Structure formats: structure tokens, C-alpha cells
Amino acid sequence: MQHFKMKKTILYIIISILYVPLGCEEFLDVEPDLQISIDEQLATKSGVLEAYTGIYSDIEELFSSRFAVYADVQGGNITFTPSATNKLVTIPSVIDNSYSFNDRYESSNYSELYSDIYEIINQTNLILERFSSFDFFSENESNRLRAELLIIRGFMHYELSIHYAQNYNFTSDASHLGIVYNTKTLIAGEDFPSRESIDQTYLLIQTDFDKGLELMNDEQIASGPVYSYFNKVNTCALYARIALQMNDWEKARDLANEVINTSGLSLMNTNLYLDEWEKDTAPVSEVLLEFSAPKTTNGTVSSSISEHFNYVSTSNYTLYVASGDLLSLYNSSDIRSNMFVEAELTTSVNGAEIQVPYYFTKKFQGNAGTICIRLSEIYLIRSEAYARLNNISLSLNDLNSIRNRANLDSISSLGTNFEEIFMERRRELAFERHLLFDIIRFKRDVNRNEGCISSLCNVSYPSNFFILPIPASSVDLNQNIQQNEGY
Q1: Which partner from 17, 42, 255, 328 sits 20 to 30 angstroms from 387, CA to CA?
Q2: b/e 412-435 (16+ beta carbons within 10 angstroms → b)
Q3: Average pLDDT, stretch 255-263?
Q4: What pLDDT was estimated at residue 188?
């Protein structure tokens, strides 16, 4: 199926003024024809569903891009493999500035992250604004579609906020800059939105999630596994993550409770943990939301997040491997110490070529889909929420559930500043896009040691450079957008 791609209609929507260097005259020359094509696309049930599945396709494409490694590279879980040609270990050119916390707003290593997320947001708004004309859906279908689109919109704005705005508790009243929050399609040349405060940003995210949950039902409107689409359970799971990010410990606890009690899932078994991650035909059994890898018409996976982590042979391997810092966190009894494919690769060190061991994660080998959230994270969310609500006993119960499953002994203390929760999140959720955001949320410093090849390996909290610069194209075209401090 050919997905409805808004890349072909991008001049029509507000994202034009956010990141496309286009003048108003050019916009007016092409807008009418493009608007007609959008209206024609959304005039039938099949056209709307094609647009809807296209949004999911774009989300998968985004989450499986190099965006997938950002938090772990910056936080220190990931380092790099040697070049297959000159055998040197160097910073990949696609992240050469951001890795050293020296990204450039004129040519940000992640400029497409900003534009692609706003593009997905505008895709959702284009459909949401036309709901009054959709007489071809049943009430349940209509409610389910609206629910998913609202949740996607809220979730995409959340992703923007953690990458482009300082953490919620950066200021005591959350009054610092958040992001532009688009709840409607805005016309280029007419509307130039400003950034909301971070407090208002999260209120708007909650509004979208609350309305989405209110409308959500069991009427799945697309074929495929239930975990590949937003539903009530995985929406509550993501909402628990967002609540944790904004220090709403009660909401994080209550949502985590609901997921654990109603999902019908259990934590992976100790004896099956490695097998679960190594299977290539389905995600791990505790997955709540996974964006499935796209397939060709003959059923072959056409691309996958594994392109960042795969190891095939000593002459066929990818860029990103576990750092020595991460590996040192697993003791020999921890089953997760076996979650790596060890490979001896020829590496140039001080002019001599020697064999050096590298450790590729087993989480995303083969044709893996992109896991967004799974049950282990929910236990860790609830553990932290309990801890911050001063219920240490229940916090330890959840934390020890994860430790015991990993074949580690129970602990009786959470440590200073909940150190044990932070470290368990780092061990269990490695390579799943969390570390940098956990470091920031816990107000810790970035300390990258073994495997760090940057001129700047350690960065103290707080730092202007814990967030990305808003791309120059957005700032130049929209006089109401304020650049992040320090860029």
C-alpha cells in the first residue's frame, strides 16, 4: 500500500514556516492544488485509513532513525565501532557535533527530528479538522480514530519537549520555555506561533491524552497486532511516563497500576529473558507498544531499527555498540550481562591494527521492530513514583521484581537520590531511548568514560546543551520562535 505522505503536501501547512525556507508568494502559488489533493485523499473511508496508516509508518520511520540512539549516545551507554576501511574508531559524521554537546543551530545533526515530528503533528491535525465530513465511519470507528490521532499528537509534542525544552523541574514553577504546540493546521504567512511555557506544554499534552482516553474503545480500525497501534493500555503506559517526567507522582503511580493490573501481561521469565530478545518473529512478550518494521509486498522487512545495532560478521556490522561504562554495570550473575553479541574487530590503535572486543546489543538484531514501551518500564515507573511519595516498601517491591528477574538479589535501600532506581533503569532500559532524559530528570551529570572519544565527555547539570537547538530555518522564518539559550 502506498502511504499518504504529507511530505508531498508540506507547503500547505504551518510547518512550512517552521522549517522550510519558502516565501509567502511561493506558498500562494502552489497551495490551492495541494489543498484539493488533501481533500480528495480524505473524501473516502479508504483514503482516510490510508492517511492514518501512513502516520504510523512515518512514526516508525522516525523512531527507527538515528533519533533512536540519541539518548543513549549522549548519556554514555553507546560508543562506536571501527571503520571497515581504515579501522579507526571515530565519531560518526551524522552526529559529529551533537555527540560533543556542541550541536549547531545552523546545521543541527538532528534538524530533521524537529521538522519530521511537526510534520506528523500536522498530518494528525489535517485529519482531525475534517471529522465533521466523515460520514463513512461508525460511531465506534470514529471515536477510535480520533482517540488515536489525539494521542499521537500529544505524544509527538511530548517527544519535542524532552528534546528541545529543559526538563519540567528546571525552574521551580515550570515557567521556562516549552515548545510550539500545534492543535490546528495553521496557514503559512498568516500564523507565526510562539513557544508555550513548559507548564502549558504539559497541560496541552495532558488534554490530548485525556480526550484520547475518553474516546478510546476496542474497535481496532486497522489490521495488524494490537500492540502496533495506540490503545487504552499502552496509552496509559505512555501517560505514566509523561506523568513521571512532569513530577506528577500520584498520576504516574495510578496509571502504572492500571497498566500492570489490566494489560494481561507479565514480566518476562528469568529463564526465557534472553530467548525473548533473540527471537526474530515477534517482539518480546511484555511489549505494550511496538512500531512494526515495514514490509514489502512479498512480506520481507524493508528496514529496521536493527540497522544501527546489527552484527552479521567481522566485515558486516553497524556503528553503535555498548560502552565500557554500560558493560561495567552488569555483574556476572546478572542475566543481562549476556545480552550482547561479542565480536573481535580489527581496530587501529596508535598506528597498529589489533583485535578489540565490541559488544552489540541483542535487543535489536535481525528484523526487529521498534519498541516504544514495555512492561518492565512500567514497574520501574511505579517504583520511582512510590519512592517519591515516600512509600519505600512498595517501591522496593517493584524494583526488586526487576532485579530478581535479572537474577540479582533483593536490596533493602534505594540509596541517595534514589540511586538504585536510576541504575536499574539504566541496566534494564539500555538502548531504549531513556538514559539522557533520566540523567536530566534526576538532575545528574553526564559522565562518559570508557569508550568516550569526544573532546567533551562530561557535562554538569544544569546545562544549556542538554537540549538540542531549534533549527535555524524555524527561527529565521518565524519571528515569534525564541532559540534555546546558548545556541
Answers
A1: 328
A2: eebeeebebbbebbbbbbbbbbbb
A3: 98
A4: 61
